[in-house]
Design goal:
The chain is α+β, with helices and mostly antiparallel strands. The protein is about 35% helix and about 20% strand. It folds into two domains: about 1-200, NADH Oxidase (3-Layer(aba) Sandwich), CATH 3.40.109; about 200-230, no CATH class. Strand 3 (about 65) and strand 4 (about 70) form a beta hairpin. Helix 2 crosses helix 5 (about 105-135) and helix 4 (about 95-100) runs antiparallel to helix 5. The structure holds iron/sulfur cluster. Iron/sulfur cluster binds near residues 148, 201, 204, 211 and 212.
C-alpha cells in the first residue's frame, strides 16, 4: 500500500489575496494588524495532506468497493466506470493554525484568521495535486467529497477515514460524531483520473452556496440519473 504524508509544506500567506478576500485596502488602519496576524500564522502553520493509492475491488450500479470498503453512491459508480486506481485523501490547515485561531477573541480578527486558514488548506490541497503529478503523471483528475451530494452523504466520511487508516495520527484531523472534520478547514475526498470536467457543484442544487465552483447543470444531473423532486 502506497501512502504519502505531505507535512513539510512551507506556507506563505498571499497578502494580496488576503486583502482582496477581506475587502480591505492595504492603507486601512487595520492593515498592520492583518499583516502581523499573517506573519504569526506563517511562523506556526503546519498545513498537512495525506493521500494514498487505492484500488477498486468491485463496482455495482450504486456502489464501489475500494480497498475492501463499500462506498454507496451512484455518481461514484458512474465516475469510476473506467478507473481501476483512485486516490483517497485528506488535507488540512493543521491543528497549529486551528489552535492559534481559537485563541483569538475579536470577531473581526477571527474572520481574518479564517481566511488565512483557508489559504493554508488550499496550499495543502495543491500539494497533493503537485505530488500526484510528479509521482504518477496521471494527468487530469477530479474529486468527489463525502457530503457534497445527497447521492454520497456525509456519513460515508467514516468509510473514507477507514480506508485512509491513520489519518488522525498523521494529520491531526478528527471526525466528530456527525462526521464533520476538525479542524474545520480540512477537506477529504477521493481523486480519480478523468478526461471530463467533473465538479460536484454541477450536480448540486444548493442555492446561494459561497463555495460554488460551477453552476448547477440539470442536463448533466439527468445523465447521471439524478432526478430531483420538485420543490413545493
Ligand atoms: S454548490 Fe456548494 S454545497 Fe454544492 S457541491 Fe458545490 S460547494 Fe458543495
Amino acid at each position: 500500500m502506497e501512502k504519502f504524508l505531505l507535512d513539510n509544506l512551507e506556507f506563505k500567506v498571499d497578502l494580496d489575496a488576503l486583502f482582496e478576500a477581506i475587502r480591505m485596502d492595504k492603507t486601512d488602519d487595520d492593515a498592520e494588524t492583518v499583516i502581523k496576524m499573517a506573519r504569526e500564522a506563517e511562523a506556526i502553520a503546519r498545513p498537512k495532506a495525506l493521500y494514498m493509492v487505492s484500488y477498486i475491488d468491485e463496482k455495482g450500479d450504486d456502489y464501489v468497493v475500494i480497498d475492501g470498503v463499500k462506498f454507496v453512491s451512484h455518481v461514484m459508480s458512474v465516475n469510476l466506470k473506467d478507473a481501476h486506481r483512485v486516490f483517497p485523501y485528506v488535507a488540512t490547515c493543521g491543528v497549529e493554525l486551528e489552535n492559534w485561531s481559537n485563541s483569538i477573541e475579536d470577531v473581526l480578527e477571527q474572520y481574518w484568521a479564517d481566511v488565512i486558514k483557508i489559504q493554508a488548506l488550499q496550499h495543502a490541497s495543491k500539494a497533493i495535486d503537485i505530488h500526484l503529478e510528479n509521482c504518477f503523471k496521471i494527468g487530469k483528475t477530479a474529486s468527489m467529497n463525502p457530503g457534497s451530494l445527497e447521492d454520497w452523504p456525509i456519513s460515508e466520511q467514516e468509510k473514507l477515514f477507514r480506508v485512509l487508516g491513520d489519518a488522525r495520527e498523521k494529520t491531526g484531523v478528527v471526525l466528530t460524531d456527525s462526521f464533520l472534520m476538525v479542524p474545520i478547514k480540512s477537506v477529504s475526498g477521493i481523486k480519480f483520473p478523468t478526461e471530463s470536467n467533473y465538479e460536484n457543484c454541477r450536480l448540486c442544487k444548493r442555492e446561494n452556496c459561497p463555495g460554488r465552483r460551477a453552476p448547477y447543470d440539470e442536463e448533466l444531473a439527468s445523465k447521471y440519473g439524478l432526478f430531483f423532486s420538485k420543490r413545493l
